[in-house]
Amino acid sequence: MKPAERMKIPRQSMPEQEPEVRAHNFNEVNLGMDIETARLESERCLCCKDAKCVSGCPVGIDIAGFVGAVADGDLRKAAEILYDANVLPGITGRVCPQETQCEEVCIRAKKGEPVAVGYVERFVADWARENYKAVMTSPPPTGKRAAIVGSGPAGLTCAGELAKKGHDVTVFEALHKPGGVLLYGIPEFRLPKKIIDLEVGKLKEIGVKIECNVVIGQTYTVGELQEKEGFDTVFIANGAGLPVFQGVPGENLKGVYSANEYLTRVNLMGAFRGEDSDTPVIRSNSVVVVGGGNTAMDSIRTARRLGADPAVLVYRRSRKEMPARVEEIKHAEEEGVKLDLLVNPVEILGTEDGWVRSVVCQRMELGEPDSSGRRRPVPIEGSEFEYPCEVFVEAIGTGANPLLTQTTPELKLNRWGNILADENLMTSMPGVFAGGDIVRGGATVILAMGDGKDAAVAMHKYMTNG
Amino acid sequence: MFNIREAKWLAPQVRWLIVDAPRVATRHQPGHFVIVRVRDDGERIPLTVADSDAQAGTITLVVQVVGATTELLCALQAGDSILDLVGPLGKPTEIENFGHVVLVGGGVGTAVIYPQAGALKAAGNKVSAIIGGRSKPYVIMEQELGAVCDAVHPCTDDGSYGYHGFVTGKLQELIDNESDPVNAVLTAGPVPMMKNVAKVTEAKKILTIASLNPIMVDGTGMCGGCRVMVDGKPKFACVDGPEFDAHKVDFGLLTDRLTAYREQEKRAWDRLHENPEHKCKLEAAMRELKA
Ligand SMILES: Cc1cc2nc3c(=O)[nH]c(=O)nc-3n(C[C@H](O)[C@H](O)[C@H](O)COP(=O)(O)OP(=O)(O)OC[C@H]3O[C@@H](n4cnc5c(N)ncnc54)[C@H](O)[C@@H]3O)c2cc1C
Ligand SMILES: Cc1cc2nc3c(=O)[nH]c(=O)nc-3n(C[C@H](O)[C@H](O)[C@H](O)COP(=O)(O)OP(=O)(O)OC[C@H]3O[C@@H](n4cnc5c(N)ncnc54)[C@H](O)[C@@H]3O)c2cc1C
Ligand code: SF4
Ligand code: SF4
Ligand code: FES
Question: Which of A30, A373, A409, B6 sits between 20 and 30 A of A383, alpha carbons compared?
């Protein structure tokens, strides 16, 4: 096919559940492409020699290679290329902010729309899960042992990459199931739990051991993993799971949640399954969420699905500054979520018996740019108003959880409690590496995976002196 | 899976379990707790480690039936297993030589003070324990405490055994005994009891530490659901506690937050009791109690 012909094909869209229907269920919103659509979309790719898109991908997937293989109808080859660079493509294909990564720098975005790399990636991963089980293999054992702390995307990726090199890898996870934020944070309707189970299953097939119910810092310290448990290297990927509260009056009322708690109750603990799961969550007719990122979007869309009407999201800056994926904002609005921008909660009011009654908010306007380069929101005097609601969820970010670091004084931290790592992702403790959100602060799945991959390379070197 | 080696009823609705959990047993210190999950899709509940045996790789749990999950757990027998168990969690009790320490345990709170008693004794303290229950059968672990304390004072609300009255009455007596001053008090049990213990010790400004029991989910500082107010500041009980200076704890808030899921908890209880499979397990466990 000639480039001119490729250029003529319009970007294919992702079939999705109708908004009115999906606003009341937890099934996946995006339904996935069929093979014809995926091929057609792949034919849009110019398979550039000096492909720009790769530079936008934190794990450096050979995008032209796998998309080209799909265009040729060789799905096995596509899967091999994909899994070679990314051990969790079914996940990244669903949750990467493609518009600011691979797709942003795709040459086709200069004139029109970029190749839908994420959609094609998801298609190949889903195909491989069903049809091409043994896509990864592991070489003979090296006899070296690595411990991974945390089973989020950073930990799982590092584990997979090390296992691919023949190392004996054990992942220690504090919760009762692996997946990290993928499991307890990102809801079923965006990333079905089944996908995580299957991707984790693929890692187990190549020898990765996963031990849940182990809290490093409590059950073992990092030093003990090295000295007593005999691990040659350790990778710390315990995430940035400390909820941050705004610090406004009324936060201890019943019905006020951190997004972490709200989403954990619903996702990990299964409260989405029905009105009466073992772990309860407060269902209410009116929910307000504060925040502008993916976590805030996930919280308010979850509330909507649990029956909230109105479901209101307030954010103190404007739409342009919202860090959430563009697709999530679009989906939320289609589902009936009300966005109220340039609004900041200042107080939560309660009933006599301690339940949330309403949130007092203040309108904001954009002032001079702040240190982040974004225009600083400034309160408008006398603009206070009340949003009546029974549940209020705070999704304004997370910090570094000190549980592990406080028992490991040898680890050097920055002033926010994030672990400091050098260019090889090694920490101040020899043989101990770190990556993902615990190093970066809240970032993205694929950046965490990139760290996992880079750390695996460095750990391999460290263990083999190669 | 965590195998249950032994299970028996200590008191009506209070079960004593010895569970294989070698990793927890090795590291356990007084004040630590674990979080368990009994069945798939089940909830996570915190339970204090009442004792441990590092050599045998076991821990002891003392569980009171108050709702659906504790009832499911208490219906388990030796040879059954607990699906998930994680720990040890929380900060351990700060053990010092205070002089004369009084431990006040109400109901299953007695399980919290038991390991503290042993450690405080070993640190050179004179240790008195006050343990309370509604009536005689509800007073638990008296013998075990007797083996590590200088004195044990059982109390019953109805006077059927020991001191007639609340634990706080007995505590007041000990505090008023000028010849044997009390230097520190550690307490665990129902919130109203801990609140009153704090009141009793406040007058003489006796250092008082309470073990708080807010609703928890993860137990690792990730959700913030367990937040309590101490000295006007929010604290996460699972990682900053669960033990805090009782004179600084907002007990009213703790009491209120514990009611957040009352309706759902009631429905969970009703659902469980309508389930025939559970009924039969439960009856088996109850038969053992009567025997
Ligand atoms: C609700 C929500 C939605 C998001 N949506 C997106 C999105 O759409 N796209 C995107 O790219 N990013 C998204 N993110 C961000 C992304 O999920 C994170 O950047 C990413 O998960 C970080 O990965 P990680 O491996 O560093 O840590 P995590 O995913 O946080 O995993 C850390 C794991 O370590 C475990 N752990 C913690 N402490 C210990 C310990 N002491 N011992 C043992 N285990 C421990 C935790 O239980 C957890 O399982 C979202 C985040 C949230 C909260
Ligand atoms: C650090 C800590 C240590 C504990 N140690 C013990 C112990 O050794 N033995 C023991 O029997 N109990 C202990 N508890 C209390 C125990 O966790 C609760 O009784 C249990 O979670 C109730 O679950 P349920 O489903 O049976 O009852 P539910 O139906 O959930 O609730 C019944 C009652 O228990 C309270 N409750 C509900 N969930 C929790 C929760 N997660 N934490 C605390 N209270 C809750 C509710 O307010 C309600 O009054 C401890 C709690 C904490 C926080
Ligand atoms: S992993 Fe993410 S950034 Fe990389 S190609 Fe896939 S969607 Fe793009
Ligand atoms: S830049 Fe765009 S068109 Fe070029 S190879 Fe990458 S995805 Fe294909
Ligand atoms: S139980 Fe979640 S932070 Fe304490």
Answer: A373
Q: Is the distance from CB of B99 to CB of B122 less than 8 angstroms?
A: no
User: With an 8 Å Cβ cutoff, are B257 and A252 in contact?
Assistant: yes
Is the predicted ipTM greater than 0.90, yes or no? yes
CA A332 to chain centre: 17
A116 and A17 housed in the same domain: yes
Task: Delineate the domains of chain B, giving CATH numbers in brackets.
Answer: 2-89+261-290 (2.40.30.10), 100-258 (3.40.50.80)
Say whether residue A402 is in contact with chain B using an 8 A CB cutoff: yes
* pLDDT tens for each residue of A368-416: 888 878 888 999 999 999 999 999 999 999 999 999 998 899 999 999 9
Contact B242, B33 (CB under 8 A): yes
DSSP string over B107-143: TTHHHHHHHHHHHHHHTT-EEEEEEEESSGGG---HH
Strand B51-53 and strand B207-211: the pairing is unpaired
- For A457, phi and psi rounded to 5 degrees? -60, -45
Ligand 4 binding pocket (C-beta < 6 A) is A 45-48, 51-53, 63-64, 67, 106-108, 115, 117
Number of C-beta neighbours around residue A456 at 10 A: 29
Strand order of the β-sheet with A311-315 is A256-258, A391-394, A287-290, A311-315, A338-341
- Chain B contact set for A403 (CB, 8 A): 220-221, 239
How many domains does one find in chain A? 3
Chain B interface includes A272 (CB < 8 A)? no
CA of B44 from ligand 2 middle (Å) equals 10
pTM value is 0.93
